[in-house]
What does this fold into?
Amino acid sequence: MTTDAAGTPPGRVDALVVAAGRGERAGGGVPKQFRVVQGRPVVRWAVEAFARHPQVERVLTVVAPGQATAAAAALRGVEVRILDRGGATRQESVAAGLEALASDPPQTVLIHDGARPRPGAALISRVIDALSNADGVVPTVPLSDTLKETGDDGHIRRTLPRTGLHGAQTPQGFRFDLILGAHRAASAETGATDDSSLLETAGHVVQAVAGDPENLKVTGPGDFARAERLFGERLPRTGQGFDVHRFGPGESVQLLGVRLPHDQALVGHSDADVGLHAVTDAILGALAQGDIGQHFPPGDPRWRDADSAKFLQHAGAMVQEAGAEITHVDVTIVCEAPAVAPHRERMRQSVAGILGLPAAAVSVKATTTEGLGFAGRREGIAAFALATVLVPNESV
It folds into this structure.
């Protein structure tokens, strides 16, 4: 096995979200992955967690034949590939997803159950980081309840010791070639409900990491009630950001991740993207986590000429770590030139792509100062930003 430096994901990381169930035992008249929790389908909550994670490159979700339309509606606006070739068992569905990824394989794959709507960013990162020293990684939680074995008649046969026993969760992470080979070698009769068990059987190293008690799997009505409480226990916070950069020699300016031709450039330690700096500060403000200068000190040579998208990705990852959600970003660019309006849609798409948001959640506006002040004298550009973030109650 080839290992990487600790904390470094081994190559490209893709996520495979399995959502091919057809059962309706949870109620609601539709498969549980398409039932709505706090305004969003369960599978959307799950897929968005990976689509937004800065270490995950691509996301593939597997649904059953005939579910492609429902999946497309549930995942509208999310950057995800939908495969409607799920099988009758979870093992078959995972195998179909792995084979689909094999045409352009990642080095690492995360496999997640679409019925688990709350895989936190910290949990995803833990699994990826642990793969530096293992062939597979499984998040687990210790069992706290006493275990009883019962017969078909409901009578208790014996009490089982729970020492050393843990419940397995997803996402589970794997070296792609190993898990693909394990699935290809497994027979249909194996009936594996846990992918790591296939690697264990083949003698590979599987590492356990701490799971998350709130990473629940929704199955019955009680689980949906708990999910409603978990996602509902969040309050809106608004953060504001402001930044300004002066003009200097150059032939273009970088605004909200889009390069605009101009007879001058903005001057700064990084790429001086005044718009992305303001949005980053607005998100950090909503989280009460200081400002961009605290996280990326302007005197640090690591950030010399850095792409400001990295700063915004960092703020977005902090939102995920906090179990929060960005619901809206509003940016105003203040300058006489260059003209922003022709590039507005590209800017919206840029910010949305960096944060994993639908473009409808991003507003970009521009105004002038009618010749007044430094902006009116064409000495530089300023940007104001507001970000609305839903934050868990316990963090407020």
About this structure: Residues 195 and 327 are 34 Å apart (CA to CA).
